[in-house]
UniProtKB/TrEMBL annotation:
Pfam families per record: DUF3700
Record protein name field: Uncharacterized protein
UniProt xrefs under InterPro entries: DUF3700, Ntn_hydrolases_N, TSJT1-like
């Protein structure tokens, strides 16, 4: 999974910002998405114009940690992994039996956005499992990004900045998640 967002959409930690003002823009030039597509020829790119993009591939997917994508009311969410307390979260968010993990994440975000004040980290703590997700709300130009793992899965998040964009990529050691 790869996401590249303009700084107006997702602020990066100051310590990770490039001191070079003349850097090439990963979003404008699209070189990261092009490289990802060259490595994963069957990848899908969801382009949000000047706001950013999400790129993902279904190649070499671990059946125990599937990659799911959904769009609801201009909220785009890419999810990978599994949630252990699905039944409880469906009940908490008033979802039907057919709702899957990516729909739960979208509904958790909508609840956070519409019914706050509820800390985003608490929303993520309420979700039990091994997962990573990237959510983009095109109406409000907001992002919600998380990676959660148990001790048995070493999950790392990587934030990098190229000029005026935030680049988010989640990866896990080979055999767990393919990004």
């Amino acid at each position: 999974m790869l996401a590249v967002f303009d700084k107006s959409v997702a602020k990066s930690p100051e310590a990770l910002q490039s001191p070079q003002s003349g850097s090439v823009s990963a979003l404008k030039d699209g070189f990261l998405a092009q490289h990802f597509a060259s490595v994963h020829p069957s990848s899908v790119t969801v382009n949000f114009g000047s706001s950013g993009l999400i790129v993902y591939s279904l190649d070499k997917q671990n059946p125990l940690l599937p990659r799911l994508f959904a769009v609801v009311d201009d909220i785009f969410c890419l999810f990978q992994g599994h949630i252990e307390n699905v039944a409880l979260l469906k009940q908490q968010y008033g979802l039907n039996k057919t709702a899957n993990e990516v729909i739960i994440i979208i509904e958790a975000y909508r609840t956070l956005r519409d019914r706050g004040p509820y800390p985003a980290d608490q929303v993520v703590r309420d979700i039990q499992g091994k997962f990573a997700f990237i959510l983009y709300d095109s109406a409000s130009k907001a992002t919600f990004v998380a990676a959660v793992s148990k001790a048995s899965l070493s999950c790392h998040s990587f934030f990098n900045v190229c000029f005026q964009v935030l680049v988010v990529s989640f990866f896990v050691p080979t055999g767990h998640l393919l990004l």
